[in-house]
Amino acid sequence: MQRIYQLMEQEKPYLSSELKVSDIAEKLNTNSRNVSECIRNTLGNTFANFINAYRIDYAKKLMRQQPDMKIAEVFLSSGFANETTFFRIFKSVTGMTPNEWRVNRQTEQS
């Protein structure tokens, strides 16, 4: 799991909307099953949920650093293929839509 975390932090493969478990496995010189099982056994999570958590964190970072960035730029820059998926996953992780989160952040800072 340490090697997976290191890869995520250093190379940020989650920023590609085309990312597959086989891509991670190839970079780590192992197979897809080992990567999936490692994530599932260590975190109790699927590969997709693991990657989406990184993407959401990255999206929040972008919105904090560039508050005027359009949502379309945010989701594309964060590795999401489409806006619908971004909104659904963002809300499931944070409990808010990206716009609600952004407004909430601004009122916290005032």
Characteristic terms for this protein:
72% helix, 110 residues, Arc Repressor Mutant, subunit A, 7 helices, mainly alpha, elongated
The number of helical runs is 7
Helices and strands, in order, run as: HHHHHHH
Q: Please, what is the average pLDDT? A: 95
Q: Could you say what the CATH topology is called?
A: Arc Repressor Mutant, subunit A
Would you state the CATH class? Mainly Alpha
Supply the helix-strand structural class: mainly alpha
How does the overall form come out from the CA principal axes?
elongated
CATH homologous superfamily placement: Homeodomain-like
Give the proportion of residues in helices.
over 70%
Q: Find the count of extended strands (DSSP E, 2+ residues).
A: 0
Radius of gyration: 15 Å
User: Can you name the CATH architecture?
Assistant: Orthogonal Bundle
Q: Profile the largest sheet.
A: none
Strand content: under 5%
Sequence stretches where pLDDT stays below 50 over 5 or more residues: none
First-to-last CA distance: 39 Å
Q: How many separate structural domains? A: 1
Topology:
Elements: H1 2-11, H2 21-27, H3 32-43, H4 47-65, H5 71-77, H6 83-94, H7 98-109
What's the quick description here?
The protein has 110 residues and is mainly alpha-helical.
Give an overview in words.
- This protein is mostly helical and 110 residues long.
- The protein has a single domain (2-109), classed as Arc Repressor Mutant, subunit A (Orthogonal Bundle).
- Helices cover 72% and strands 0% of the residues.
- The protein is elongated, with a radius of gyration of 15 Å.
